[in-house]
Design a protein that fits this description.
4-stranded antiparallel sheet; 4 helices; 13 strands
Length: about 260
């Protein structure tokens, strides 16, 4: 049975100052710059956020399922480990309170009143059981259709000592809503031997683990270019970077790109 436990909802106090926001400079792309490793700008079919825990016996199946979606080139899959099962006997080595807070923000917006693992949030718009391929597929199909007229192209590349994010304009007939531009620092694969708790004795493998998720700008319907210093964001565990354009702070995700695309 899926591990579902009610937790008291509270108003989100996730100001950008509470996040690990490095010193980031915004600038227009200089004339003549040529992108290296630029993505196509074509929005992915889906962004899947998996909320999981090393202390949850129901989660390994969801972790393995996410890998199948990550292997699809038109899906961005992200693992966000949470910390609220630590009291069961094993402290999650990848979890952080910001992931838990983001999951709470979704619970408040969806009106569910609970957070649980494994939970998948698809395109920032629908939450489903993270170990159910059929539920995830239905959510992808529904949100892909619902968000089709709102999609924003994103180009994302590195040039010299900079990482550059370029978000396009809102579709011609769309009424744009202000959106947060998020930058996710991702570790592609992490193996964790679990010594206590519900998964005692297991070595669990996680994919596209979000080590840091930081708001780096605001999109308001007009073309937007952001330049970030590579030295500020490329850390030892950084193996990939993902950009999300998300209405408000926890609304539908209307644009996304991977640096590795």
């Amino acid at each position: 049975m899926t591990k579902v436990r009610s937790m008291r909802l509270r108003m989100a106090a996730c100001a950008a100052s509470l996040l690990l926001a490095p010193s980031l400079a915004l600038a227009e792309t200089a004339e003549g710059e040529q992108p290296a490793g630029a993505g196509s700008g074509q929005p992915p079919r889906a962004v899947i956020e998996l909320y999981t825990s090393q202390g949850c016996s129901d989660c390994p199946a969801a972790d393995a399922l996410l890998k199948q979606y990550i292997d699809e080139k038109n899906v961005v899959g992200l693992t966000l480990p949470v910390d609220y099962w630590d009291y069961l006997g094993w402290k999650d080595t990848l979890a952080g309170p910001r992931n838990t807070e983001r999951q709470r923000d979704y619970a408040e917006r969806f009106g569910t009143g609970t957070i649980y693992t494994p939970q998948a949030v698809v395109n920032g718009a629908v939450e489903v059981l993270g170990s159910s391929a059929s539920e995830i597929e239905r959510a992808i199909a529904a949100t892909e259709t619902a968000l089709a007229s709102s999609r924003v192209p994103v180009h994302f590349w590195h040039y010299g000592n900079s990482v550059i994010i370029e978000a396009g304009a809102a579709p011609y007939d769309a009424e744009p809503k202000e959106a947060t531009i998020w930058l996710a620092v991702v570790q592609k694969r992490v193996e964790v031997p679990v010594k206590e708790g519900e998964n005692k004795g297991e070595t669990l493998t996680y994919y596209n683990v979000v080590r840091e998720l930081t708001p780096v700008g605001v999109w308001n319907g007009r073309p937007t270019t952001i330049r970030l210093a590579r030295a500020d964001i490329m850390k030892p565990e950084t193996e990939d970077l993902v950009v999300l354009i998300q209405e408000a702070r926890s609304g539908p995700i209307i644009g996304a790109a991977r640096l590795g695309d």
